[in-house]
């Protein structure tokens, strides 16, 4: 090379330099991290682990540097092939001739996963026994806490549905029209998968096929043929509930998606697979399909909050009667959420509002409104 004079000089600073163990797929061993000094201006630079393309065994005690290739290799082999950490560490030791501490490796591996956003489930974090279905995203609801074993009293066994549970998971359901879609809008980008698509699944598929078959209405959902299915609505609540429309109105308007119907847990975490696009204005059928999926996935969940819970409760009972294949142990308690409840008759509040229901605690049940509030930026107005 023509330019023989190097601008930079690398060296190890005895006073401030650190020695680490470097582990890569190419070479491994003790590494004195060099400090580079610019010959012209004397600027000095010592790379950190991240700058050197490595993750450390611990953010505070960074004495082992795992090169990214090692971590991404295990991300593939561990997740896809089920290779154990011990197996992989043995391979690393064989490859490098160096001892590798498997616990150090695990902490570096999870630091890498967190930073690389490669984790989207408790399973990939190595946590077992958590719900991988509806409640998979909520660290509180994904597992049912059981009392710890104390002297003479064994730890609670698996909690059966309907028994006295310490923690009652509950669900807050609602629809929002802001997340609608104009029928002629966005055709060019229709192939882009929305970020929230993981929350749409079985319920949305069922809504879509019912809509395509012209059967997205209450009568079809209840498998009823005679009479107006909501003629016999036994709810005595006289409150005017603008949202409690049993069936869709015929007005179609400029939208092909009239909004989104969905559910969250009591911690405002969306439930997987329960969301659906509304192909019509809001109607009971969306909620019946949601509750159907809920009881099939988690028959132990009982408490459900819907702002017109007093009206849909008897409809749900008729739906259950028309669908004997639903789990027999499922016993939903549909309640009106606290804030919406105050708009209902006093008599209705006392029998339907979660605030007055035994064992419901202070669930409130309005959490889905918080989710809608967060999604305002995505709305069409
Ligand atoms: Zn310089
Ligand atoms: Zn939760
Ligand atoms: Zn009511």
Task: Give the key terms.
binds zinc ion, 381 residues, single chain, alpha+beta, 10 helices, 2 domains, four-stranded mixed sheet, five-stranded mixed sheet
Q: Which strand-content bin applies to the residues?
A: 5-15%
Largest sheet: 5 strands, mixed
Helix content: 25-40%
Given helix and strand content, the structural type is alpha+beta
| Secondary-structure element series | EEEEEEEHHHEEHHEEEHEHEHHH
Instruction: Determine Rg (CA atoms, Å).
Output: 29 Å
Unique bound compounds: zinc ion
Q: How many angstroms separate the termini? A: 64 Å
Summarize model confidence as the mean pLDDT: 81
Which of globular, elongated, flat, extended, rod-shaped describes the shape?
elongated
The count of β-strands is 14
Compute the number of helices: 10
How are strands sequenced across the largest beta sheet?
12-11-8-13-14
> How many structural domains?
2
Residue runs with pLDDT of under 50 for 5 or more positions: 155-162
Task: Describe the protein's architecture and organization.
With 381 residues, the protein is an alpha+beta fold. It folds into two domains: 8-119, no CATH class; 170-183 and 195-227 and 240-378, no CATH class. The chain contains ten helices and 14 strands. It has helices spanning 68-81, 85-96, 102-115, 202-212, 218-221, 284-297, 309-322, 338-341, 346-352, 367-374; strands at residues 8-11, 19-23, 28-32, 35-38, 44-45, 54-56, 64-67, 170-176, 181-182, 255-257, 260-265, 276-277, 303-306, 333-335. The strands form four sheets. The chain has a five-stranded mixed beta sheet with strand order 12-11-8-13-14. A four-stranded mixed beta sheet has the order 3-2-7-6. Helix 4 (202-212) runs antiparallel to helix 6 (284-297) and helix 6 (284-297) crosses helix 7. The longest helix has 14 residues, at 68-81. 32% of the residues are buried. Mean pLDDT is 81; it is low at 155-162. Bound molecules: zinc ion (3 copies). One zinc ion is lined by residues 138, 140-141, 265-267, 269. It holds the Pfam family KDZ. InterPro entries: KDZ (IPR040521).
